[in-house]
Amino acid sequence: WSTPLAEFDLGPGVRTLRTLQLLRTFWRRMYGPTNAFLFHHFLYHTTALPATLKDRRPAAVTMLDQQFGVGDSLETDFQINIPHGGAPEDVKKFVDPPLIAVGGVLQDAGSSPPDYTLDTDPATSTGIVSFTNPPGSGVPLTWGGRYYIVCRFREKQLDVTFQNYDRGVASVPVKQVRDFV
Fold first, then answer.
1. pTM over 0.85, yes/no
2. How many other CB atoms are there within 10 angstroms of residue 118's CB atom?
3. What is the 3-state secondary structure (H, E, C) of the chain?
């Protein structure tokens, strides 16, 4: 609970009356800040990092993007996470199935028997990888993929102004939360 939470502004995407109407409908379905929803941003929610400081988009996702654990020859269950500044943040909801590697070797969840199991259904996923065989002692566990974060609308009211809406100037703040209810 000590890690900071992110805030995002959905407003820059509001450029038509139709988009504004869809946003208002979604806000009402969520009962404003009452209910949480899954949010994905093309830049923030990927394990891949930009290759250089001047890149405007992240590189392609690989199985070696982020380390989420180290094998000890005993443990089979590991929580997938992103190590933001040394304080890992658990990842529980995935846009698409993540690439999982043990010691740099891609694991296959579709083999028989599977190398690991991981529930990727957004409604039930906990982000825990269960390996069929415990990874060897000192072997790095890595992953790559795109993921969601859980957000709520920040405000109890949706302030809408029609001035400059066609330029994406509207401000619709959402905040990251830790629960998904």
1. no
2. 21
3. CCCCCCEEECHHHCCCHHHHHHHHHHHHHCCCCCCCEEECCCCCCECCCCCCCCCCCCCCCCCCCEEEEECCCCCCEEECEEEECCEEEECCCECCCCEEEECCEECCCCCCCCCEECCCCCCCCCCEEEECCCCCCCCEEEEECEECEEEEECCCCCCCCCCCHHHCCCCCEEEECCCCC
Of residues 95, 15, 86, 10, the one with CA closest to residue 48? 95
Segment 95-144, tens digit of pLDDT? 989 999 999 899 888 887 789 999 988 888 899 999 999 999 999 999 99
Q: Residues 43, 44, 49, 54: is their CA dihedral positive or negative?
A: positive
174 phi and psi, to 5 degrees?
Answer: -125, 155
β-partners of residue 109 are: none
